[in-house]
Specification:
The complex is a heterodimer. Chain A is α/β, with parallel strands linked by helices. Chain A has helices at about 1-5, 10-35, 75-85, 100-110, 120-130, 205-215, 225-240, 250-260, 270-280, 310-320, 320-330, 340-345, 350-355, 375-390; strands at about 65-70, 90-95, 115-120, 155-160, 160, 165-170, 175, 200-205, 245-250, 265-270, 285, 295-300, 370. In chain A, a hairpin with a 2-residue loop joins strand 4 and strand 5 (about 160). In chain B, helix 9 runs antiparallel to helix 12 (about 225-240), helix 10 crosses helix 11 (about 215-225) and helix 14 (about 260-265) packs antiparallel against helix 15. Classes of the chains: A alpha/beta, B mainly alpha.
């Protein structure tokens, strides 16, 4: 495994992403030439305006810049540079940290954004609020590269169409250092074990922490708990508090704490152990708690009334190509829904890593309590504050 | 006639009044940009927040105009909020006191015994940390105080401890230390400005007249630098009431201050709940400012020129 990890040096990553960019860029260029009989529909020089530009001819490909609110791992610079160079579609990204952050902003600015990323049950919530459009996912050729399960998620299927383009997913798992944690745990209970006082790191996300305490205490829906379920989860949170070294501001803080050995146990997304190892930290073990876990799966949604909507489909057609997605996996280390990218990874000798990250098991998402806007958010925050306040 | 009388009798006062008005407007003009900024960026947002604090959030994260005081009631009925607020006040008071205790001798020595040229260099050194982002400065403390941090390495290297201590970070003490570091420049600069104008020969005169050094310090120096001390208190105490980053980064699970609890609400779209807590803190700050304002007599500033 150590050898495998060492393969992902910056130089090698740049090679992979460069090759992906060149492959997709060349493909897109040839496709554009073929579709337009050699007509110059995607100019190599930047457009005069930032909005989509209607070039001459009915088959002209739109070019311009669109506004995308997303997480930082949904794209990488070499990818967007290649797309900008080959097809003159550029992005103006705005990053956000939490679904509620993006949701409230889209509610405020609406069509000033063109595309927004969102998790699991947040996606239908956007739709029901009239903020996004449903569309035919099969109208995108690139969607044939997805696992079929990803084109048929019930929560994202409406009579009007599909609600988002599936991107990545991950369960929240428990990571531990076997040198300090034994016997090998298989339950959320390990987080509460007094043996590990001050050795646990969890991300500073009250709703998520309460959600997995809810899973541990047997709540039916970790994001919409009843008052009784919240009370049980709160009792567990009280036991958890003395064990917490710190509430990590972001995943990199968790990784730093595990790497330094300050923390022995942490909760996190798939791939945390590899990132710790990559940075010279200890060899960690990982498990999915037997009580079940929470998780996320995200997608790209088209904002209703977006001024640059015509750029979205052409962009997705390019950006979601397997070569880019495979490179994204290598960079960010969590499973994505693109099956063709998995095949590329296998051909590149990355199957062990991909399988370890459950890349080939997208059906796992059906075993998780999916992230979404719950009905108990306020009560959950109150319970969290009561435990973590003075 | 009546009209004539009225129009004939009043031109001069009216003209004078118009001139006076123009003059007053002219004098007020420089204040308008600041007034506009305060209104747009402070008063109006505060009013919006006040209104929000009486509403509630529904499950769709919409603000519902269902006027109620339950968000305020939460603060007074759930002990955790009062305890956390009191803890915040204690932390702010302790940091302010420690900040003054460190910065007063520092600036006293600087003003009295260091040449003007060197003073500028030292003051620059005090300000230099501002060139780095607040976030980075606080993160740096993790590297200093952490289990494998510089402090532990130093203590182990000198043989004072056998194994790394976990006591330096992720607790209230770490928050206290980091806040002193962060707010020291504010206190130091306020005190420097006050001490720079003080005539130190007065201390010699007092002692010549029989005062002990501590008496001269208390009765001659302190009253004259009181505006600087109060300004330092305002600059340190009040911002700490809203501190959430240092407790988040170095406070650990038990380091939360009141702003951390407010943030937990607002980050999840529960704006009315967060707004009510923020208004309570803001009301307290206003009271503190009024108290400080009364202590900061105008003549103190005017006579000091």
């Amino acid at each position: 495994m150590a050898d495998l990890m060492r393969q992902y040096s910056r130089r090698q990553f740049l090679k992979v992403t460069g090759a992906a960019g060149a492959t997709v860029g060349a493909g897109a260029f040839l496709a554009a030439c073929g579709a337009n009989s050699g007509a110059s529909v995607a100019p190599t020089s930047p457009p005069a305006t930032t909005g989509p530009v209607a070039s001459e001819g009915p088959t002209a490909a739109p070019t311009g810049t669109f506004n995308w609110m997303t997480w930082g791992d949904h794209y990488y610079q070499a990818q967007v540079d290649a797309i900008a160079a080959s097809n003159n579609i550029k992005i103006n990204p705005t990053l956000f940290s939490d679904n509620i952050d993006a949701y409230t902003k889209v509610k405020q600015v609406g069509g000033q954004l063109d595309m927004v990323s969102g998790d699991a049950l947040w996606v239908p919530h956007y739709f029901e609020a009239g903020l996004i459009e449903a569309w035919d996912i099969n109208s995108l050729q690139v969607s044939s590269q997805l696992y079929s399960i990803a084109r048929e998620f019930e929560i994202w299927t409406k009579p009007e169409g599909y609600l988002g383009y599936p991107f990545g997913w991950s369960p929240v798992q428990v990571y531990y250092d076997p040198a300090n944690v034994s016997p090998a745990p298989d339950s959320w209970e390990v987080l509460l074990d007094p043996k590990y006082k001050g050795r646990v790191v969890v991300e500073d996300q009250p709703v998520e922490i309460m959600a997995y305490m809810g899973k541990f205490s047997g709540a039916k829906n970790a994001y919409s708990m009843t008052p009784e379920e919240i009370a049980k989860a709160k009792d567990l949170l009280i036991q958890l508090k003395p064990n917490i070294l710190r509430l990590a501001n972001q995943a990199t803080d968790t990784i730093a704490a595990l790497k330094s050995g300050e923390a022995w146990i942490a909760t996190g997304n798939l791939g945390t152990e590899s990132r710790v190892k990559d940075q010279g930290g200890p060899e960690l073990k990982v498990f999915t708690p037997k009580e079940g876990t929470i998780g996320w799966m995200d997608s790209e949604m088209i904002v209703k009334g977006g001024a640059n909507e015509s750029l979205i489909m052409p962009f997705l057609e390019l950006a979601e190509q397997a070569e880019y997605i495979a490179a994204n996996f290598i960079l960010n280390g969590r499973p994505l829904f693109n099956e063709a990218a998995y095949k590329i990874l296998v051909n590149q000798g990355q199957q062990e890593r991909a399988d370890r990250f459950l890349y080939n098991k997208p059906e796992t998402v059906h075993t998780m309590d999916l992230k979404g806007p719950g009905t108990s958010t306020q009560a959950v925050i109150e319970a969290f504050n009561e435990v973590f306040g003075a | 006639m009546t009209t004539d009388t009225r129009s004939g009798a009043d031109p001069a006062p009216l003209a004078g009044s118009a001139r006076g008005l123009r003059s007053r407007v002219g004098r007020a003009a420089p204040f308008l940009p600041g007034l506009l900024m305060l209104t747009l960026l402070f008063l109006i947002p505060m009013v919006i927040m006040l209104v929000f604090s009486f509403w509630r959030t529904n499950n769709d994260f919409d603000l519902v105009r269902d006027w109620n005081v339950s968000n305020y009631a939460r603060f007074f009925t759930q002990a955790t909020y009062i305890r956390t607020f009191i803890k915040t006040l204690i932390m702010a008071s302790a940091v302010t006191a420690a900040g003054l205790a460190i910065s007063l001798p520092f600036t006293y020595f600087l003003v009295r015994y260091v040449s003007r040229r060197l003073q500028r260099a030292v003051l620059l050194a005090v300000i230099v940390p501002f060139w780095t982002s607040y976030l980075l400065r606080v993160y740096a403390w993790q590297a200093i105080l952490g289990e494998k941090g510089a402090l532990n390495q130093f203590l182990m290297g000198t043989g004072l401890i056998d194994k790394p201590s976990t006591l330096f970070v992720y607790n209230d003490l770490a928050v206290f230390v980091v806040l002193i570091y962060v707010y020291f420049p504010f206190a130091a600069l306020a005190l420097y400005a006050a001490l720079e104008k003080f005539d130190f020969t007065q201390l010699n005169a007092a002692q010549d007249l029989g005062a002990r050094p501590d008496q001269a310090f208390r009765h001659i120096l302190l009253p004259q630098i009181r505006p600087g001390i109060i300004t330092a208190c305002i600059f340190v105490f009040i911002p700490i009431l809203g501190e959430f980053l240092a407790p988040t980064l170095v406070g650990g699970a038990g380091g939360s201050l009141i702003a951390n609890l407010i943030i937990n609400f607002t980050r999840q779209g529960q704006y009315p709940e967060g707004a009510a807590l923020a208004i309570i803190v803001a009301a307290f700050v206003t009271v503190v400012l009024i108290i400080f304002r009364r202590s900061l007599r105008v003549e103190d500033v005017v006579t000091r020129g």
